[in-house]
């Protein structure tokens, strides 16, 4: 579900808007979305409904729209922290982004399942520590490609 080419380590971005633009740009380059600007708009629209910030420096922005061609998880680890509305008031440094095509009920189930799997794993201190300190994209992929 996640590939090394969708993992970005050591990025310097300064706001949610910059993160959403970065995600959209990469997703467009990787042919995950049809339109880069629509992807930015979709992420902002979803974020406006309810913040996707969690706690301990993690956020999970996500959307399920017609603009998405294929399901993907992107992961961005920032070199810096940014302001984000989170449960614990802490800034965010680690961002999982879930993009799922709109349409079938199956896609809706996949969308919810991916959010749930990431959120449940983020309850585990060991998982958070490994994600936050992994040195390579390969390590991140191995951690995120969950065992069922």
Automatic annotation (TrEMBL):
One of its GO terms (molecular function) is protein-N(PI)-phosphohistidine-sugar phosphotransferase activity. The keyword Disulfide bond does not apply. SUPFAM superfamilies: Phoshotransferase/anion transport protein. PROSITE patterns: PTS_EIIA_TYPE_2 (PS51094). GO terms for biological process: phosphoenolpyruvate-dependent sugar phosphotransferase system. One of its GO terms (cellular component) is membrane. Residues 1-147 form the PTS EIIA type-2 domain. Keywords: Phosphoprotein, Phosphotransferase system, Sugar transport, Transferase, Transport. It comes from the Bacteria. This is PTS system, fructose-specific IIA component. The lineage of its organism: Bacteria, Bacillati, Bacillota, Bacilli, Bacillales.
